[in-house]
Design brief:
This protein is α/β, with parallel strands linked by helices. Helix content is about 35%, strand content about 20%. It contains 9 helices and 10 strands. It is globular and about 45 Å long.
């Protein structure tokens, strides 16, 4: 599968290296075609590791990951252009975190309570099938659920397209060791208000636990 990664930070490279190791072709997108880090990564990783602009990556990829800082999502989507994501499944990992007043962060006011970054992404990319997922865990755990409690912990997702959510569920189970019974579908993309809203708590818990390798387990 051709997998496009929109974002060249730690999360983007973590996902890129994980899916590359599984035998997929990967392209990492950034603002410029000659981005230093993505160019070096592509050269080091070989023929199946490509780099390009956000738009080129979105056009090329069959499955897309959006993994950039929440504060720059608007500008990244402008560079990407809505038409390049038409009919694509896009996994949105972003969180609207505001670190301006220190730790733990708060939510950016424009994406809290009655609105979410996930909804914004779907509105800006109306032709894409946006699925909010993986935004509530550390990047190492994203690509290997077995790192915590043998994979027995919950991951939350939401989106408007049921088939797209099923595609993401299968991908996460087959590629990243997430157990299907622990993938909780919260419904439409409006539920991103809930899954994004718990991330400041996650950051606070990380500080108390002194490790990012933990997750939520809902017991009933």
């Amino acid at each position: 599968m051709k997998i496009g990664i929109l974002g060249s930070g730690v999360v983007g490279f973590t996902i890129a290296n994980a899916v590359l190791a599984k035998g997929h072709e990967v392209m990492i997108g950034s603002r410029t075609p000659n981005h230093e880090k993505t160019t070096a990564w592509s050269k080091e990783q070989g023929a199946h590791a490509l780099h390009g602009t956000f738009k080129e990556t979105a056009l090329w990829g069959e499955l897309l990951f959006l993994c950039v800082n929440g504060s720059v999502v608007r500008s990244v989507l402008e560079f990407t252009e809505a038409g390049s994501c038409k009919d694509k499944v896009l996994i949105d990992l972003t969180n609207p975190l505001d670190f301006s007043k220190g730790m733990p962060p708060s939510l950016l006011p424009e994406y809290s309570n009655h609105y979410s970054l996930g909804e914004f992404v779907q509105e800006q990319l109306p032709g894409a099938k946006v699925v909010k997922a993986l935004n509530t865990v550390n990047c190492k755990l994203m690509v290997d659920a077995n790192l915590v409690n043998d994979g027995q912990h919950h991951l939350f997702l939401c989106g408007n397209d049921t088939e797209a959510k099923n595609t993401v569920k299968h991908f996460l189970a087959e590629q990243f060791n997430w157990k299907p019974d622990y993938l909780l579908d919260f419904g439409t993309i409006e539920a991103a208000r809930l899954t994004e809203g718990i991330v400041p708590f996650w950051v606070g818990a990380m500080k108390v636990l002194d490790t990012p390798l933990f997750n939520y387990l809902i017991v009933k």
